[in-house]
Amino acid sequence: MVLALLSAAISGIIFGIGLALAGMLNPAKVAGFLDIFGLWDPSLMLVMAGGIAVNAAGYFLFVRGGKPIFASSFSLPEARQIDKKLVIGSVLFGIGWGLAGLCPGPVIASIGLDPAGIFPFLAVMLVGLKLGVIIRTRI
Amino acid sequence: MTINWAEFTPLMSFSGGALIGAAALFLMLTKGRIMGVSGILAGLLPPNSSFELFWRLAFIFGIIAGPLLLTGFSLYTIEAVAVAKDGVLYLAALLVGLGTAIGSGCTSGHGICGLSRLSLRSMMAVATFVSAGVLAVFVMRHLF
């Protein structure tokens, strides 16, 4: 139990450091990646490439057919259908991501660095998240 | 298309990305869970209080601690320049929350974990949110 919690915390720490080094905590950099019609900063493509290279290699080597250390089985999403919720949700998220240059991971990672600056965004985002969970069950 | 070579950080971004991928792999191999921040956060909101709360909290504390450890124990400085002001920022925050809940994932869950598993749903989600993000930035920067 303690080791399972510790492993979740270690994952979070590595993730937080990775986000910071990748430049993902800088909204201007994220917007620079999305600005393909202006001055385009392709850095985020390399963030994805690095993340997918490591994670996919591990996934195909260890996850398929294996078992996690602190749980009875891997919890992988079972949905296969591309439905309107997936598309509508992703459109809304993408607009918000583009407008602010922030997505959920970097918002959390910014809490310790700039608590007063990020708190309003975090609070409204959590309200949106809760509303979204409710809306999702009704459409 | 003009590439902004001055801001392009291929090595740092690839290394940071590799760490993000390693974090996702580590969470999967230990807790057996997808490292999707929006989903993990949604699981923390009331009334979802259960045994499942604790690993989620531990993960969130880790994300907060990571950048603090980095700046505390190295000379690395984290730059953060805002791109939106109050009204737009709150609208964006609401859309990020709503959208990731309705679309079942964000940049970490769909972008890193889903694409690594070759999930068609995640490929569709990433193509959609990147396109919507490009459009939003285009409208903000080049139309107004």
List keywords for this structure.
heterodimer; A: 139 residues; mainly alpha; 2 domains; globular; B: 144 residues; 6 helices; 69% helix
Structure description:
The complex is a heterodimer of chains A (139) and B (144). Chain A has 139 residues and is mainly α. Chain A folds into two domains: 1-76, no CATH class; 79-139, no CATH class. Chain A has helices at residues 2-22, 27-34, 43-63, 84-100, 104-109, 115-136; one strand at residues 39-40. In chain A, helix 2 (27-34) packs across helix 4. In chain B, 53% of the residues are buried. In chain B, helix 5 (107-116) packs across helix 6 (120-143). Chain B has helices at 10-30, 37-42, 53-73, 86-102, 107-116, 120-143, and one strand at residues 2-3. Chain B has one domain (10-143). Classes of the chains: A mainly alpha (139), B mainly alpha (144).
Give the H and E element order of chain B. Answer: EHHHHHH
- Calculate Rg of chain A over CA atoms: 17 Å
Main beta-sheet annotation of chain B: none
Number of β-strand runs of chain B: 1
Would you tell me the structural class of the helices and strands of chain B? mainly alpha
Question: Rg of chain B from C-alpha positions?
Answer: 17 Å
If interface size is counted as residues with C-beta under 8 Å from the partner's C-beta, which chains form the largest one? Answer: A-B, 117 and 111 residues
Structural class of the helices, strands and pairings of chain A?
Answer: mainly alpha
Low-confidence stretches of chain B: none
Strand share of the residues of chain B? under 5%
In DSSP terms (H or I, runs of 4 or more residues), the helix count of chain B works out at 6
Number of domains of chain A: 2
User: β content of chain A, as a range?
Assistant: under 5%
